[in-house]
Amino acid sequence: MIKAGRIERTKTVLVVDDQEINRDFLEAILEEQYAILFAENGQEALEVMTAHREELSVIMLDLMMPVMNGFEVLQRVREDEELQKIPIIVLTAEREAELRALQAGAADFITKPFDEIEVILARVGRIIEMSEGRKLISAAERDPLSGLYSRNFYLEYVSRLFRYHPELHLDAVVLNIEQFHSVNALHGREFGDEVLRVIGSEVRAFLAETEGIAGRMDGDRFGIFCRKQADYAQVLKRFQQKLNERFPDVNIHLRMGVCPWGENADPVTMTDRARSANSMVRRNYKNPLKIFDAEMQRRELLHQRLLNDLNRALEEKQITVFYQPKYDIQSTPPRLSSAEALVRWQHPELGMISPGVFVPLFEGNGLIGLIDNYVWAEAARQVARWREQFGFALPVSVNLSRSDMLDLHLEERLVRLIEENGLEYGDIKLEVTESAYTDNAQMVLDVIRRLRDIGFEIEMDDFGSGYSSLNMLSEMPIDVLKLDMKFISNIAVSETARRLVLLMLDIARYLRVRVVAEGVENGEQLQILRDSGCELVQGYYFSRPVPPQAFEELIRKELQTERTEGK
């Protein structure tokens, strides 16, 4: 067991805000310099302050919150001789509230929406420095629940181990509790704390048998650096069995990511890679272990390259919009009805990059909004050009990502695109995946209702791939259901698949919404869908996604057919 030397320790910041996006933003800014605790309302904040009063260096306090607002917290803190020693920075968008908060005892304020990162860091640092009399006040060396090192002490100590003991060749391990928030919600925070204590105890027992160090990184994530193990599956099994023995009546699942030591390895990169491997087995209950390998490294380098190249790709229009037609199959012959906008990236060095590679990447990094806004603008301009060229507007569907729902200016952006291009609201249809409705459903429903009230048509994409209940489906403000292609691919060979599609068509008729079947590839599938009453289809049977010039040929062909039939 490696013994810890004494080092300079870090400070702890409590972030109190009921908006998850604000907590995430502040965490991203502060986590490199401070240990961070979180609370979602004033009542929870007071509980955290009381439990951690000795280690807190500053509190960042939102004013407008449910349960107990920030002004009430300021009053309660003012009445407590110990808590009033902790400086408070209020977070507010109202100038009048700033003055009132300062009068109530706040040390400083930061204006919302947050913008300049350096200003936020400078204000936090200045307030701590003033409060502590320019002395370095450490956060707790040990996490009080798990008994392991606290996050920042752990990371600093690991860095020193790599610097002064390179001969150790330690592997990085990241251990997570699957859906820990659900464990807390179902069984209470005290139960969750006991789970953390048990894991911490078993990790310490494991490290007593090998050289290494461990820390609690945040809520349910543990970091370990240890000598290479012959079988990490057995290590994970050991931790899992301890939980099963201690909590036999509760299903608690662990997952693990490992990054093996390598030449020129540094602890931060290794921890990030172990965390990436850990994330890849999220909700994989059959195989909850992933070891970072050469393929993952290749993918990591590719992802970093794409992240670095995104802005240039947008500026140079390397990213283009293709269009896949949708046909009304209840007409004879089928009629071109509308199209879906699909993004493609022709990289000057890497060639054509599949959206299956870069779309999930940008979704995970919060950059998908840049892609979406680009596609919306291109699609709107294209609809306007086709209207001028052919004398009618062909509606185009564009994707609306879940992260777009968090954009406070979303409605304004979309309305401006319609107005600037002289379009009708029905000319641009908005596709939202079914899975987006199942995560923070009420927020998504509220946004979609507002867009629909304005006049946009809403399409639920990939229907059948998620887990929407029929009750929830009845509440969703939608105009079109798009059947996931995995159902369509088997309807000609599987009676079960055919029955499922018929059931979903019946649901759509009950809800009085139209249906688009995706992935139609042959005449047999088409005939089954036509006979079943499906109105619209898209797929390779009619056309792959094509660039605008090629799509214009489909429009010309449609117009020629209409002229021929009119004779």
Task: Describe the 3D structure.
There is one protein chain. This protein is 47% helix and 20% strand. The longest helix is centred in the last third of the chain and has 23 residues, at 368-390. It folds into 3 domains: 11-131, Rossmann fold, CATH 3.40.50.2300; 149-292, Reverse transcriptase/Diguanylate cyclase domain (Alpha-Beta Plaits, 2-Layer Sandwich), CATH 3.30.70; 301-566, TIM Barrel. The protein is of the alpha/beta class. The strands form 3 sheets. An 8-stranded mixed beta barrel has the order 12-13-15-16-17-18-19-20, surrounded by 4 helices. The chain has a 6-stranded mixed β-sheet with strand order 6-8-9-7-10-11, with helices on both faces. Strands 2-1-3-4-5 form a 5-stranded parallel β-sheet, with helices on both faces. The radius of gyration is 28 Å and the shape is globular.
List the helices and strands and how they pair.
Layout: E1 11-16, H1 20-30, E2 34-39, H2 42-51, E3 56-62, H3 70-78, E4 88-92, H4 95-103, E5 108-111, H5 117-131, E6 149-150, H6 151-164, E7 170-177, H7 180-187, H8 189-207, E8 212-218, E9 221-227, H9 232-246, E10 254-259, H10 267-280, E11 289-291, H11 294-315, E12 319-328, E13 335-347, E14 351-353, H12 355-364, H13 368-390, E15 396-399, H14 410-420, E16 428-433, H15 434-438, H16 441-454, E17 458-463, H17 470-475, E18 480-483, H18 485-488, H19 495-511, E19 514-517, H20 523-531, E20 536-537, H21 548-566
Parallel strand pairs: 1-2, 1-3, 3-4, 4-5, 6-8, 10-11, 13-15, 15-16, 16-17, 17-18, 18-19, 19-20
Antiparallel strand pairs: 7-9, 7-10, 8-9, 12-13, 12-20, 13-14
